[in-house]
Structure formats: structure tokens, C-alpha cells
Specification:
The complex is a heterodimer of chains A (147) and B (121).
Chain A: H1 3-29, E1 45-53, H2 58-62, E2 72-81, E3 87-90, E4 102-105, H3 110-146
Antiparallel strand pairs in A: 1-2, 3-4
Helix pairs in contact in A: 1-3
Chain B: H1 7-31, E1 41-42, H2 45-54, E2 66-67, H3 82-116
Antiparallel strand pairs in B: 1-2
Helix pairs in contact in B: 1-2, 1-3
């Protein structure tokens, strides 16, 4: 079993959770954006995580005893737009108002986004401690040689 | 039984190997804590250790990862329990470091046997 691959697994999760936090931050930042490059209000984004077997890294490839079993990393499969219809607010003076005086705002609930952000931060922490624990194990193996 | 490859060392090596495998599975479970539909995976640690010990050591027995039964799944089909995984994370680390210490002491004994013979002649 190669412990360096274990670091890659945690690494993939750190990356995925950070991307999730980025998407959440973008949702919160654009909670009031009424027009975008594609036209219409900003659409809320979601990340979709998927488990996938880790690619062998160059270092692992060189180890003949490398055992490619089992454990899967995670990656962001895709970022999808939320299908929820925009929230319409009556603001006749607004430049983006339609003929009836309603402005379409993105359907973003800041509380929901905060909960998502907290979940992502906690998962990041957990994976960071997994990295720490794996690092300790690798260090311990190195110490066998030292003694 | 050879001096450099005692059964004790063999056992410790297998044990270290299995804990490392387990660490990779626990880490994989933690990585997928938010993946919809992911099922927790683990090896039967004691069963695998028994199996490794019963073999004659000529062929390496590959541990088999199985889905863990009896965990509560969330509505998205994911059944990773953070408590279970973080507890296992520290457990595996302690198991690894204790086996590592024992292996180190094996080598120390060997070293002692080599060095203490120095002035005998």
C-alpha cells in the first residue's frame, strides 16, 4: 500500500471542497445581480461531486508493488445552474425592469448559501486532518530507516 | 526462521500494510463525505490479518474492500458517518505507530546483537 497515494485522495477532496466554496461565494456575491453576460438575472450554481478512482501519479507508477485497489478520491463532476425561477420585485425605476415594472432577481437564499459554506469548510478541515494523520504515518515509516 | 526475517517482523510488516490500506479507505470515505450516492467502504481488518497470517507468505493476499453495512444513509444516498471516520482515522494512526515502534525495536535488537559482538574476540 502506498501512503503517498493516500495524500492524493485527501488532496482531491481539498480541491473539490475549495471549488464548492468558490461557487457558494460567487452565489452570495451575485445575490442581487440582475443582469449577466448571457442576459437575465444571475442563476444560482451548484457543484456536483462524484467519486472517482485516483489516477496513478508518476511517483506511484514507478513503484512496482503499487496496489491500485479500492479507495476513491472525489472531484467536481460539473457545475449546474439551479432551475428555480427568478424572484420578481416591483421596482419600476430600475433599468432592468420589464414592461410591468418588475425586476427579476436571482432566487438566492443567503442562509442556504451560508449553510453550504459551513459544510464545505468543515469538510475541508476534516480532510486537512486526514492529511496530517497520513503525514504522521509516512514520517513514522521514515523513522524506521533512521533508527 | 532467519535472523533478519523473523516471524515477528513478518507479522508487523503485514500489520503495517493492512493499516496503510485501511488509512487509504478511511481517507477515501472522508474525501467523499459530500458525494451523493457514495457508500462507506472498509476492510474486515481482523479477518484480513488472520488471512495474511495463515498464508505462507509466498503470495500476497490482496485485501478486499467491502461496503460497510448498518450505517444510516442520508436522503442523497450517501452513508458516510463523520464520527466513525474521524474515530477510525485516529485509531489507524495509533495502530500504525505502535506497530512501527515494535518494528523499530526489532531492528534495535538486531543492531544490538551485531554491535555487542564487536569486542568479543
Amino acid at each position: 500500500m502506498n501512503l503517498f497515494k493516500v495524500l492524493d485522495i485527501s488532496g482531491s477532496a481539498l480541491l473539490a471542497e475549495r471549488q464548492r466554496a468558490e461557487v457558494v461565494a460567487s452565489n452570495m456575491a451575485n445575490a442581487e445581480s440582475t443582469h449577466t453576460a448571457e442576459g437575465g438575472p444571475y442563476k444560482r450554481m451548484h457543484v456536483v461531486f462524484g467519486a472517482h478512482p485516483m489516477q496513478k501519479s508518476g511517483f506511484a507508477m514507478t513503484l512496482a508493488s503499487f496496489n491500485d485497489m479500492n479507495a476513491e478520491g472525489v472531484r467536481v463532476e460539473r457545475v449546474v445552474q439551479d432551475g428555480a425561477p427568478p424572484v420578481r420585485r416591483f421596482e419600476p425605476g430600475h433599468p432592468d425592469a420589464d414592461a410591468d415594472g418588475y425586476v427579476a432577481y436571482p432566487a438566492i437564499n443567503p442562509v442556504e448559501e451560508m449553510v453550504n459554506l459551513m459544510g464545505s469548510a468543515r469538510a475541508y478541515q476534516l480532510n486537512a486532518s486526514a492529511v496530517q494523520s497520513t503525514k504522521n504515518m509516512i514520517q513514522a515509516s521514515i523513522d524506521i530507516i533512521k533508527s | 526462521m532467519s535472523l533478519f526475517n523473523s516471524s515477528q517482523m513478518e507479522l508487523l510488516t503485514r500489520y503495517l500494510d493492512l493499516t496503510a490500506t485501511r488509512q487509504s479507505l478511511v481517507t477515501g470515505n472522508i474525501a467523499n463525505v459530500d458525494t451523493p450516492g457514495y457508500r462507506t467502504r472498509d476492510i474486515d481488518f481482523h479477518g484480513e490479518l488472520q488471512r495474511a497470517l495463515q498464508g505462507d507468505g509466498s503470495e500476497t493476499t490482496e485485501p478486499v474492500a467491502r461496503e460497510v453495512q448498518g450505517l444510516i444513509a442520508r436522503p442523497d444516498g450517501n452513508n458516510v458517518s463523520i464520527d466513525r471516520e474521524s474515530m477510525l482515522l485516529s485509531e489507524v494512526q495509533l495502530e500504525f505507530s505502535s506497530a512501527e515502534l515494535l518494528l523499530k525495536s526489532e531492528f534495535k535488537t538486531l543492531n544490538l546483537a551485531i554491535n555487542e559482538g564487536n569486542g568479543a574476540i
